[in-house]
């Protein structure tokens, strides 16, 4: 799940329990430079993450891809913003997982992104009901993917659920997740990968200790 370089067709792991955590987890082996794998290498990757996360209707995803091809500078700018946001999300939520205070600079950065996101919220009537929708003025369309991510981060930071934020217990994984287990005992981002690998490692150590 965590290995390999960024490739076309990469399937993002969306097991974090919150959109903002899934977004923070788009790097594997973050603190192991020889094995670090970046899963967001371009704006196209950002759209793919949004597509897999069901953030965008297919038509809008296609529109963003086409817009990015026409506006390379705008796409690069939106992509840089996404990486800045992602790094602040990781710093903030990994600090919470460790029982530490979130660095003020990261809180401020998340706040700035969330404020921009809220400016693009509008009430719309659909099928006799009202719901929130995202609205772009056209010039900032390429930033559209960042808005729900920033909103998710703000909601998690201000909710009681933040006490359930965990960082994977595997020494070679730093992915974040919400521990929604009944007794708050989940240790791994994914039992099938990190969990089983750590169990096998402990078994080997006991057998050969």
Topology readout:
Blueprint: H1 19-24, E1 27-28, E2 37-38, H2 43-52, H3 58-70, H4 72-97, H5 104-118, E3 121-126, E4 129-134, H6 146-157, E5 165-167, E6 176-178, H7 191-208
Antiparallel strand pairs: 1-2, 3-4, 5-6
Helix pairs in contact: 2-3, 3-4, 4-5, 4-6, 5-6
The gist of it:
Helix content is 48%, strand content 11%. With 209 residues, it is mainly alpha-helical. Helix 2 (43-52) packs antiparallel against helix 3, helix 4 (72-97) crosses helix 5 (104-118) and helix 4 packs parallel to helix 6 (146-157).
- The total number of structural domains is 1
**Count of β-strands:** 6
Write down the secondary-structure element order. HEEHHHHEEHEEH
Q: What is the CA–CA distance across the termini?
A: 28 Å
Strands across the major sheet, in which order? 1-2
CATH topology: Jann2411-like fold
Q: Structural class, please? A: mainly alpha
Describe the structure.
By secondary structure, the chain is mainly α. The protein has a single domain, classed as Jann2411-like domain (Jann2411-like fold, Orthogonal Bundle), CATH 1.10.3300. The protein is 48% helix and 11% strand. The chain contains seven helices and six strands, in the order αββααααββαββα. The strands form three sheets. It has a two-stranded antiparallel sheet. Strands 3-4 form a two-stranded antiparallel sheet. Strands 5-6 form a two-stranded antiparallel sheet. A hairpin with an 8-residue loop joins strand 1 and strand 2. Helix 2 packs antiparallel against helix 3, helix 3 crosses helix 4 and helix 4 crosses helix 5. The N terminus and C terminus are likely disordered.
